[in-house]
Write a structure and sequence with these properties.
heterodimer, A: 137 residues, alpha/beta, 5 strands, 18% strand, B: alpha/beta, Rossmann fold, five-stranded parallel beta sheet
């Protein structure tokens, strides 16, 4: 199928201490990344209830991104580890619901990794563009 | 004056109708206060009779079962018009229940399995449900299953599959006094018969299915058996746990939670002990059916508009 004119809507949940700071870093370094991403700051990636992800898809997101601290770096000790487990289960759940699990992506981004943030966003938006819009029958 | 009561059976197993008899001798006291005007399961009544009743003439209408056919939907709307208080009775009416799992598939998939590919069904002419045969009209099998609340405004909810005796008794008493808010607001763990055996910190290192482990009589989650208790509303008294069966969540979520399955899924992630990433993947992969485990009763609310179309 041809999705050339399709602009995906991506919700990005970013943790306050690493991923959001990484996004800031991308900004202050004047790095370019697609405007499809809507960032939402949370205190910890562990705060992201699986319900938020389902709600995002329900309300029109084509992709959901979760950014947290690298394992071992979590400001709250193990919030990111719990997120990793939740994402693993969520992916299976989404697949059963009929949503491509690639629409949910988890990445570890530290405060200094502005370049990684920009690169991952570019990659993710392209991936969602390839998968196409999420529609209901 | 006696209160006028109606009870309708939508798409469900019929257990809800029977559960009303489950309050035993209290039913006799109840009959002094009520007059049943419409209950297709218990006595002969035609839809015309219901149509002829003046609007708002029924005091309390109980609707059990989900909305699967156009007929269910029509009666739901009719009862809404005729009743002062419309009550979603049981898990099907509130959140779709087990039959709501059908929303993981579309209508054609369901027809294929039920009428065409089923090994015990002989259907050489490939007859599928129709809406019109000659002059006879049949209600449409809707594209996906809906809960009562997705069709009409609902005033009160009696949870459970079917509503257990203590829940039902409390609800009926409240409803007859005109109250629409009743029931508990805590999780099942609060009144669990195995409450005392729950350790301060649960650390699961692998999951077992019911038959894979000999039950030692302690908290199911501590044993590694998934029990929906922490994410499920209390009120039933833990009948299943008392019969050595872990909770599957028929009472639905507590009032503070909207998404029961997500809450439990989230909790499971916190209950795993300190294990490395590889082991973690293995442990989580041992939960095979995510929707069936965490959304057994709420799948229709998880997928409110039917299956998502995603080519992957």
């Amino acid at each position: 199928m041809n999705y050339k004119n399709f602009e995906p809507k991506i919700i990005a949940f970013l943790c306050n201490w690493c991923a959001y700071a990484g996004a800031d870093m991308a900004g202050t370094s004047r790095l370019k990344y697609p405007a499809n991403v809507v960032p939402i700051k949370v205190m910890c990636s562990g705060r992201i209830d699986p319900e938020f992800v389902i709600d995002a898809f329900e309300k029109g997101a084509d992709g959901v991104f979760i950014g947290g601290c690298h394992p071992g770096d979590c400001h709250y000790v193990n919030g990111n580890i719990r997120t990793r487990r939740r994402v693993a289960m969520m992916k299976k759940l989404l697949e059963q619901m009929g949503i491509n699990p690639r629409r949910l992506r988890l990445e570890w981004i530290s405060a200094t990794e502005g370049a990684k943030f920009a690169k991952v966003m570019e990659e993710f938006v392209n991936e969602i563009r390839e998968i196409g819009p999420l529609r209901r029958k | 004056m006696k209160k006028k009561i109606a009870m309708y059976w939508g798409a469900g197993c019929g257990g809800c109708d029977v559960s009303l008899l489950g309050i035993h001798e209290k039913l006799l006291d109840l009959l002094d206060d009520i007059e049943i005007v419409f209950w297709p399961c218990a006595f002969d009544a035609k839809y015309e009779d219901l149509e002829k009743m003046p609007d708002k003439s029924i005091d309390i209408a109980f609707y059990n079962g989900a909305i699967r056919t156009a007929e269910n939907e029509e009666i739901a709307k009719l009862l809404r018009k005729k009743a002062k208080i419309l009550v979603a009775y049981g898990s099907c009416a509130i959140e779709g229940c087990v039959i709501g799992l059908a929303n993981l598939y579309d209508r054609q998939d369901i027809f294929n399995v039920v009428y065409l590919k089923n090994e015990t069904t002989k259907n050489d002419e490939k007859v599928l449900p129709k809406e019109k045969i000659d002059e006879l009209e049949l209600p449409e099998f809707l594209p996906y299953l809906k809960t009562l609340e997705q069709v009409v405004k609902v005033d009160a909810f009696i949870p459970g599959c079917p509503p257990p005796k203590p829940v039902l008794e409390e609800a009926l008493e409240a409803l007859l006094q005109g109250k629409t808010k009743f029931g508990k607001s805590v999780a099942l763990c609060d009144e669990c018969p195995r409450k005392d055996t729950k350790p301060d910190k649960i650390e699961i290192s692998r999951f077992y299915r019911w038959h894979e482990k000999e039950d030692d009589g302690s908290c199911f989650l501590a044993q590694g058996i998934i029990c929906m208790g922490p994410a499920t509303l209390a009120g039933c008294g833990g009948e299943c746990i008392a019969a050595n069966i872990p909770c599957t969540g028929c009472m639905g979520p507590t009032p503070k939670v909207r998404n029961q399955g997500a809450a439990m899924l989230s909790a499971i992630a916190s209950l795993l002990g300190e294990i490395d990433e590889e082991k973690e993947e293995e442990v989580l992969n041992s939960i095979h059916d995510m929707v069936g485990t965490f959304y057994k009763y709420t799948a229709a609310k998880l997928l409110p508009k039917g299956r998502v179309k995603d080519e992957s």
